[in-house]
Design brief:
The structure is a homodimer. In chain A, helix 9 runs antiparallel to helix 10 and helix 11 crosses helix 13. In chain A, the strands form three sheets. In chain A, strands 1, 2, 3, 4, 5, 6, 13, 14 and 15 form a nine-stranded mixed beta sheet that branches. Chain A has a four-stranded antiparallel beta sheet with strand order 9-11-7-12, covered by helices on one side. A two-stranded antiparallel ribbon of chain A has the order 8-10. With about 400 residues, chain A is of the alpha/beta class. The first copy, chain A, starts with a helix and ends with a helix. Chain A has two domains: about 290 residues, Zn peptidases (Aminopeptidase), CATH 3.40.630.10; about 110 residues, Alpha-Beta Plaits (2-Layer Sandwich), CATH 3.30.70.360. At the A-B interface, strand 8, helix 9, strand 9, strand 10 and strand 11 of A face strand 8, helix 9, strand 9, strand 10 and strand 11 of B.
Chain lengths: ~400, ~400
Amino acid sequence: MGFAGLWDSLLPVGRDRETGGYRRYSFTEADLACRAWFGEAAAQRGMRAGGDRNGNLWAWWDVPDGPAAEPGSAVVTGSHFDSVPDGGAYDGPLGIVSAFAAIDQLRARGFAPARPVGVAAFCEEEGGRFGLACLGSRLLTGAVEPAAARELRDGDGVTLAAAMAGAGLDPAGLGADDGLLAGIGAFVELHIEQGSALHGLGAPVGIAGGIWPHGRWRLDFAGRADHAGTTRLADRRDPMLPYAATVLEARRAASAHGGLATFGKVAAEPGAANAISSSVRAWLDARAPGQGILDRMVSQIEAAARRAADAEGVRVSMRRESFTPPVEFDAALRDRLAAALAAQGIRAPVLATGAGHDAGVLAARLPAAMLFVRNPSGVSHSPAEHAEPADCAAGVAALAAVLAELAGR
Amino acid sequence: MGFAGLWDSLLPVGRDRETGGYRRYSFTEADLACRAWFGEAAAQRGMRAGGDRNGNLWAWWDVPDGPAAEPGSAVVTGSHFDSVPDGGAYDGPLGIVSAFAAIDQLRARGFAPARPVGVAAFCEEEGGRFGLACLGSRLLTGAVEPAAARELRDGDGVTLAAAMAGAGLDPAGLGADDGLLAGIGAFVELHIEQGSALHGLGAPVGIAGGIWPHGRWRLDFAGRADHAGTTRLADRRDPMLPYAATVLEARRAASAHGGLATFGKVAAEPGAANAISSSVRAWLDARAPGQGILDRMVSQIEAAARRAADAEGVRVSMRRESFTPPVEFDAALRDRLAAALAAQGIRAPVLATGAGHDAGVLAARLPAAMLFVRNPSGVSHSPAEHAEPADCAAGVAALAAVLAELAGR
């Protein structure tokens, strides 16, 4: 089956009829349908498939003899099925569908791998249900404590342990799987670009340089509830004002430092139209090309928040809720990818990205790399996310070339 | 019973133990307890009490002979029991408790009224349950359609009709009550000041000059959902930015025009910390000393919202959701109040207010006036709302003087 058939068979799963966006949350009915699709795709190809201790799925194109038995010999590709609320079709699934399609291409041209080739589907990459991004790969590499993970709760208060058990998986086994990791020599994740850099460069595929350090900060502006119709401006302690000033300063700081800063979540209390807020709580998402730059950018935003709060008699506290240090992908692996693509006449510019990925988590334990596929509008985490069929085909061809290079004799 | 005993007996009703704020929502258990308290206060004073067609309560100090039978002879005072979420103890109840306490004072000194004296408790003044402020007085005066009112819903989807029926009241009778209104010659509402003007003037009581025109506008900023970690600043259409600019401009405009402007309610969609918002919806509360000033102020805010939205590729729409024209209280009645207070040595400055009141609604149909009691912090719609006992006593004395003037021979 070609890419299009595989792609179309997965497309309806978990799509909301009204918004056209995807709601593929881990261990829900939509997710179980994706997992069944994975098992079927593996079976159709005669690949050995199953889950690991952490709810991630693996399908293997085994090699009977030779270096298969050697530690660190396997070449793995893959991505994730799960989506953000009303996310697009490509973020995640494109990497899994392209993996099977690339294997089909290799087999069609008679390629015989010298090392095992695996396809992986990591769970809860978006953190869309349990709030912790890259949960499946973090558990696999030991970057998160199994006991803490089991107690993570979704918006309805359901724990990860209960959700896994409900999906027929055993949460007791969660945790680092060094044996599994030891067998892998390289991991390559193909992903839709979540920006429009490739569009600007006129290239259908690119190679990841690294992942920017990024984090999330919670800001609490505490003012004083008052009547909006009677409290003189001079008597107010309105937390909405320093919040607004901080939003604008965050954009200025991001622009000045060449980074990204976003306020996408805000809650005002008591939240009545005729009441001055007692408090405004908001979350800053900040990312930058380097640790020092990010530190300076966030410091500038925090200083502005304090100045603006002081001017209005408002107290502000700022707390880092999550943080991911910079990831520099393995340079030797990146060079092999670039050379393999160049040999096929594929120009693949190297791009840094502000988004976290399972490949970034795995990079702490083994050589990892990423391929990006052009996203003409740059829109992601939205039903409008799109890649042209020709670019998806270019992505599959590039991935096949990379697998041939890494798993060949 | 003096003011303090009456006040203390009402104080625990509907108070939340954790916040110390009041949750006296219309037709709930707390409200029914307030209504029972009203009936008991009337009975203790031998006053004839009952509800009208619209759920408002009335207690009458009747006059057996004389001008009692004449249309427009009664003098009514009162306010409301209901609160905003976690409101203070004084906003509303102070006017009802002070009414009974003033009657006690008049009786204690042997005052014999020449006209009936009424105490009224209007329902749903805050709109805290059904969203329409001054609902009881608006129904009474015919300013709101009974059929539309019956269909108003609270946050749980319960209609006003169902809530009234559940409280043992008949919603079928809702509507203008011209007979009741025709009997009233003057209405005087005593209310805690919801600002600190009297504190600044060093006066325990004041007289209302008028109510500023005020309204509520909904602003919808429509942008484009995108990934916060990968979308270049130049590619964003982030509605949070023009929202923030509008918040700051609203404060500047209010300051420049001598009015008030507040954003106390805001909702961002999808509301994820790592997503650029697809939309930000927010509500502007704006009030000013005159219609022309308010118009200019709101126009300035709207123009700024459009400019800021255009600069970010965001669409904005602005719609007026509610509006109350300016109220100028009856000048002759105000002068009589001022003279009566001056005769008692009570200095009572005249203040305009930005808040709506039942007295403002009734002013459209009969001579109405208001007395304000000093609020040292100016805080209102908050558990911290407060008036000193000595100032409450001054309010009762002023109200007694006013009732003696209006209901005397």
